[in-house]
Amino acid sequence: MSAPIAPRRPLRHAVPIVILVLGGIAALLSWQVMRTHGQSPVGDRGAAEGLAVALVTIVASFALCAKVWLDGRRRKRELEAATRRLDEQECRHRWAFEDNPLPLLVFDCEDSRVLASNAAARTCFGYDLERLHTLRETDLIDPAEQESATARIRAAVSGTGVRTVLRQRRRDGSCFEAETVRRRIAFDGRDAELVLVIDVSDKRGLERALREGVERFVLISQATADVIWDWDLRTGKIWWGEGLHKNFGYAPEEVAPGTEFWLARIHPDDVDRVRVDLTAVFDSGERRWQADYRFQRSDRSWAEVHDRGFVIRDDTGRPVRMVGGISDISARKAAERALEETLDQLRSKNAELQQFAYVASHDLQEPLRKIRAFSERIGLRLPEDAPPIVHDDLARVQASATRMRELIESLLAYSRLGSTASGFRRVDLDATVRDVLSDLGEAVRESGASVQVGPLPQIDAEPAQMRQLLQNLIGNALKFRHEGVSPSVSISAATVEEADGRELVELHVADAGIGFEERHAERIFAPFQRLHGQDAYLGSGIGLSIVRRIVDYHGGRIAVRSQPGLGSEFIVTLPRRQAGRGHPGDTGASAANERERNA
Question: Which residues are within 8 A (CB) of 40 and not within 5 positions of it... i.e. 6 or more apart?
Fold first, then answer.
């Protein structure tokens, strides 16, 4: 700051006073002369004129004095205003330099010594005022760049407003990238350079991140089989990845940047739907969009595509950009159509097989009834002295007919499983077990079995199938027991949770029967597969096959743990809820497709 300017008082301020004094003296002298010569100032005309001149001189002196005094006051006010302007200008200069939020340094052009610095510069570099003013510019530059930086600085010194990028070094040794703006100035009579330092480390980092992101985006567009696109909603321009050429055959020069290229190649029957869906996403504030439509290849053929995009919005929620990708799903759609045709054929064949099974069972049952009826008649007509072997052969015929009838009925039940289901609803397993035990009451009493039933939950299931499942499992536990030993059966349940959050129910049916080797675990679930002879244990050999089909139909799983002589435990795991399942009459493939769509 310079010292305040003291106002100077010019000598001309005393001129009016001098004139006034001299005029008064002249008037007095004239008056005295006239009195000395005996002339009356009133009577003598000449003396009167002299007196008038003296008076006029005095008045003029007074007027001149007033003018000079007023002029001095005006000049004083102007001087004070100029002083205030100088002070304000000095304050502005001080703010522009010392109080500037950006680092400012003044370097001597001859030896690069720091001549002046502001508070922001001292904070930026970590020096106090005295220490900073002992340094040179090279002391504030990264040593690894000093040689190249010095050359750039020399080239910039001769310019005005020249920008250079340097790696600056702080007092603690850390470095940062800075953009410097230089201007030649005169400072305290020296040729100096004013330097503005702007830390651009974050900017450079963002530029590098943006460059890497663009490179990554391009690489992804080259590597993926999809068509990557980037749509600027403000300009309407779309950037297309190389997949557009790889998948649909369009050369870069054929592709216009606007939306017209894309919309013109959507099938006429699909384009309006795509427009409406896009508009709905933009207006609703949603961010994700997807659509299936037909897209024309360069050879004029149509591809079926799955297009999906992500909407980017500004701070006000207005959509400004959209990025996404197009997948050619023509092969998948063709495979789905072929699969659907196959499923239709399977449904038709399944219906035919069910009809055949029903007709076959009905037609086979009639000969079996006749075999049994005629064998019984033959038995009644045999003489009492008939050979025992005849009676034995006749009994074998009747037993075989009965066995054949059971097999036909079991096969019919197995083939019709699912088609006769009434639908999923809430099933109380506890009540179902009580009903099953009531049906098996005679077998329980005859075997002297002990049945322990724990608390059982409610699940979504097909009621008749759950009853059939439990009846087969409990019936097997009662059947495959040690000779002369009363069977013991335990029925319990536990709730488990899958990793995906699904709640499952584990149903345990355990017995202390004869058991089997676990290497035969898969074999027992196959139709008509038996581990024991027909003579040892009665049955059709299809009960556990029906159990597995019921478990599969409900989207569950079944496992078994067993040891010979120690018994077996069947673990049936079923979903507690059947969310998204169709009617039980649907085929397994349809139910699987439904589950896939829900996933």
Answer: 34, 47
Which whole-number Å values give the CA distances from 407 to 356, 404, 410, in the listed order?
Answer: 16, 5, 5
Nearest Cα neighbor of 513 from 572, 548, 563, 559 is 563
DSSP 568: E
User: Are 411 and 542 in contact, with CB atoms under 8 Å apart?
Assistant: yes
Among the ranges given (274-278, 295-299, 332-336, 461-465), the one the predictor scored with the smallest mean pLDDT: 461-465
Stretch (H or E) spanning 237: strand 237-240
User: Which one-letter DSSP state was computed for residue 75?
Assistant: H
How far is the C-alpha of 433 from the C-alpha of 453, rounded, in Å? 8
Burial of 50: CB neighbours in 10 Å, binned 0-12, 13-18, 19+: buried
Pairing of strands 237-240, 458-461: unpaired
The closest of 181, 175, 103, 165 to 139, measured between CA atoms, is 175
Which residues, including other chains, have CB under 8 Å from residue 300's CB and lie 6 or more apart? none
The three-state (H, E, C) secondary structure of 123-140, written as one string:
HHHCCCHHHHCCCEHHHH
pTM over 0.85: no
3-state secondary structure 420-441: CCCCCEEEEHHHHHHHHHHHCH
State the Cα–Cα distance between residues 298 and 523, nearest whole angstrom.
Answer: 56
Beginning with the edge strand found earlier in the chain, give each strand of the sheet holding 237-240 in spatial order: 237-240, 227-232, 319-328, 302-313, 288-296
**Amino acid found at 461:** A
pLDDT top residue among 473 and 24: 473
Q: Label residue 585 by pLDDT band (50, 70, 90).
A: very low
Q: Where are the alpha helices (DSSP H) in 301-451?
A: 330-381, 388-415, 429-439, 441-447
CA 352/CA 358 separation, integer angstroms? 10
